[in-house]
Amino acid sequence: xxxxxxxxxxxxxxxDQLILGHRNSEWTGxxxxxxxxxxxxxxxxxxxxxxxxxxxxxxxxxxxxxxTVAFTRNASQFxxxxxxxxxxxxxxxxxxxxxxxxxxxxxxxxxLSESSYQPLADISKKIRAELRYHTLHANTWMKQLGSATEExxxxxxxSLNLAMPYALGMFEESPDExxxxxxxxxxxxxxxxxxxxxxxxxxxxxxxxxxxxWKTLQPVFGGRVGKHSEHLQPLLDxxxxxxxxxxxxxx
Amino acid sequence: xxxxxxxVNRLPLIGQPGEILPKVPLDQFGTFEVFVQPKxxxxxxHEGIVHAPDLEMSFILAKEAFTRRFTCVSLxxxxxxxxxxxxxxxxxxxxxxxxxxxxxxxxxxxxxxxYHLLKxxxxxTHVGTVQAGSPQEAMTQAKKAFKNxxxxxxxxxxxTSDIRFTSPEEKDLWLTLPEKKFRDASDYKGGDKLxxxxxxxxx
Lengths: 251, 203
Hints:
The complex is a heterodimer. Chain A has helices spanning 3-25, 34-60, 66-72, 82-85, 91-112, 118-145, 150-168, 177-182, 189-204, 232-239, 241-245.
C-alpha cells in the first residue's frame, strides 16, 4: 500500500467535508424556514462528523490529532476543492452546491466502500447510509424549485451555471491517481466524474433547468494542491478562533 | 471589504423617519403531521408538526426535525387536514361513547389508520387499520374493533392513502455513524463547564 497516496486521498475528502460542513453551518439560524434550517444545519454537522472520522483515520496513520489538523493549517495546506469554500451567497447557490457536491460525495463513498484499505471501506459503508438523506434532501429541493416558479427556476439556473466549473474541480486528480486505482484504494476521479454526470443529468432532466454543455466547461482546479480562492483563509480564521485563543479549551 | 457572512448581510434594514407601516402578515407554509416509530415492532406515535410546501417536502423536513437525536426506525407524514378528530373527552367518558354505532355504509371502502390518545398531554398512538367508506364510518368501525375498558380521550382517523410512508429502500436513512455524541446537548456538559468557570473566577 502506498501510504502517501492514501493519506492524500483521505486529506482531500476530509477537508472537503470539513470546509463545506463549516460553510453550510453558517446558515444556522438564518435558513429560509425553521425546518429547513434544522435539516441543513444537521447535515452540516454530519459532514463535520465525517471529517472527524477521517482525520482520526489519518491520525492512526501517523498524522497529527484531528483538532490540530483542522485548526492549525493555513489555506495553502488544505486539499479541499474550491467549490466547497465559496461563500454561501443566496440560498439557491447553497442548495445547488449541496446538490452537486453531495451527489458526488455519495458516489465517492459508494466507490470507497470497496476500497482495498479496509478501515476506509468500513467507514464508507456507514457514511454512505448517512448520505442517503443528504441526497434525498438535495434532489427533492432541486426537483421542486427547479420546476416551481419563474423566480425559483431562474435563480437555480444562474447558480447552476455559476457553480458548474467549480463542481468539475471536485474531480481534480491526485498526483498518485494511477497508483490509487491500480492498488484498488479508490476507483479514481474520472470514473467518479462519469457517474456523477449521469446522476446530475438524471435529476436535472426532471426539472425545467438545463445543464451547460459539458464540453464547453473549463473546470476550476487548484484546490487539491493548496491553490485556493481568497475565500478560504477568512473561513479558517473564523473556524479556528476559539482554538487559537485557548488550544486546551474543551467545548 | 463587504462581509461574506450572511449573518451580517441579513440584519434588518434601518427604517426612514416618519415611516409607519402595517405589520406584514406571516408568509408561512401549511402544516403536516409527523408520526415516528421509535423501535421495530413498536407502534407509530404522533411526534409533532412541520411546515412544508407539500407532502414530499414535509417528509424530508420531518426526518431531521424529529429524528435527529433519538432512535427511530421509520416515520410518516400527512397533511394536517387529512386527520379526522373525534370529540375530546375530559377522561370521565370514553371518546368512543361519542361515536355513533351506525353510520351510512358506503360501497367503496378504503383503509383508514386509527390512533388513540390515552392520556392528556401525551401523543396519539397508532392502534390499527379499518376499512371504511368515510372518516365517520372509520370511527364507527374503530369503535367495534378497538374499544375496550381503557378510557380513550381522543381518536384520530387518517386515510391510509393520504400518508407518505417511509419506503423499504429508505429504511437505511437511520443507519448513521454510531458515534454521534456531538448531537446530544448533554454531552457538552455546559452546566459543569459554567460552574467550573464561575468557581475559578470567584476564587
